[in-house]
Amino acid sequence: MPETAPETLSVSELNRRARMLLERGFGECWVEGEVSSLARPASGHVYFTLKDDRAQVKCALFRNRARFTPALNNGDRVRLRGKVSLFEPRGDYQLIVEAAQPAGQGDLLAAFERLKHRLAAEGVFANQRPLPCPPRHLVAITSPTGAAIRDVLAVMAARWPLARISVLPVPVQGKAAAPAIIRALALANADPRFDAILVTRGGGSLEDLWAFNDEHLARAIFHSRLPVMAAVGHEVDVTLADFAADMRAPTPSAAAEQLVPDQHDLRRRLATLARRLTHAQQRRLEAEAQRLDHLRARLRHPGERLAGQRQRLEALDTRLQRALTRRLAEERRRLAMLHRRLGAADPSRDVAQARQRLATLETRLHAVMPRQLERRREQLAARVRELQAVSPLAVLGRGYAILENAEGEVVRRAQDTRPGERLRARLGEGRLSVEVKRRYR
């Protein structure tokens, strides 16, 4: 019997089976190495080679993952998480990258998070003091030759040339950096000239910025007498010094922008206010001029008013003379009529009868008066006793008083008075003048 012909695979089938075998056999894995041959085509995908001193592997970072991955550069040492696969059209063995991080940062980031949570629990990140804007005299703690201080000085010179800034030079990288920055903070707090502190440096790797994650430095910033602004690294870099400071800026230039106002903005604002003031003055002058014209039109010469008053006075005088003449004529007629009536009625008989009646009444009066006086005295005494029983003077005799205000009205409530008001107090015996000092409800 002839032998069965062996299975013959096409190249594409071979590559397909190899890809499936690689993907099922390895799954996800972490690989560490150095980035080289980096390419970023227009598609948004990133292609590069990961190598060490003995081997290399092609890598592909697709666009949907590249958006959430830190930027890679040739020469970077990175740790990659991905799946081993094969690019079938060319038969290239490759690593499909899911995530990337700088090599050696895993332990540092874990230590950073542990220290961050512990300091936050202790309240080291609780500073929120406002920084003066602009500061009277700012002290910058940074490298005197770094790009950070050059950016700060350039921005301040452009925005606020009057700014006063002193530099306390310190290393901003390495083991000596944190102790040097702590000593500089102590010097700045001891100098009465300064009223704000800026701790800053430019960007760098996590290892480069690690001095600013020092626990003692974070505590020194928290205990600083002067308010502290931290601007360490680029916008994505965050250190413990940033959390402990009173204010954080994403970059040294942004820190300078927050610390001082922009002279150009102030000039524009002043110019705007000056224009508004000028327009307001112009409108006010125009309104007052219009009001003056209106008043001038209403104003009449005093001579005209005097002439009018003189005519009115003459008219009133004429009316008065006529009224007096009529009244005198009427009174004369009435007096003549009364004379005639008096002459017609002789009063002598009425006078004699009135005298006789008066004598009779006088006799009766002398007889009745003593009895009436006695009875009236008794009634008066009874009324006096009744009046005494309900008289407010009897109440006053027991130690009470009646208060009256300046209009003589009785004061019944404290709310009817005011501090400093003069009142009259009627007592059981005598009166007092009192002054209200304080009012109680």
From TrEMBL:
The entry sums up its family as follows: Belongs to the XseA family.
First-tier enzyme category under EC: hydrolase
The keyword Hydrolase appears for this protein: yes
The Exonuclease VII large subunit C-terminal domain is annotated at 127-434
The reaction(s) catalysed by this protein are: Exonucleolytic cleavage in either 5'- to 3'- or 3'- to 5'-direction to yield nucleoside 5'-phosphates
For this entry, the protein name equals Exodeoxyribonuclease 7 large subunit
Q: OB-fold nucleic acid binding domain spans which residues?
A: 9-99
Q: What does this protein do?
A: Bidirectionally degrades single-stranded DNA into large acid-insoluble oligonucleotides, which are then degraded further into small acid-soluble oligonucleotides.
Q: Which GO terms describe its molecular function?
A: exodeoxyribonuclease VII activity
Pfam hit, one: Exonuc_VII_L
Where located? Cytoplasm
Q: Which UniProt keywords apply?
A: Coiled coil, Cytoplasm, Exonuclease, Hydrolase, Nuclease
**What HAMAP family would the database entry show?**
Exonuc_7_L
Q: What is its EC number?
A: 3.1.11.6
Assembly and oligomerization: Heterooligomer composed of large and small subunits.
Please list the coiled coil stretches.
263-341
Q: Which InterPro entries match?
A: Exonuc_VII_L (IPR003753), Exonuc_VII_lsu_C (IPR020579), OB-fold_nuc-bd_dom (IPR025824)
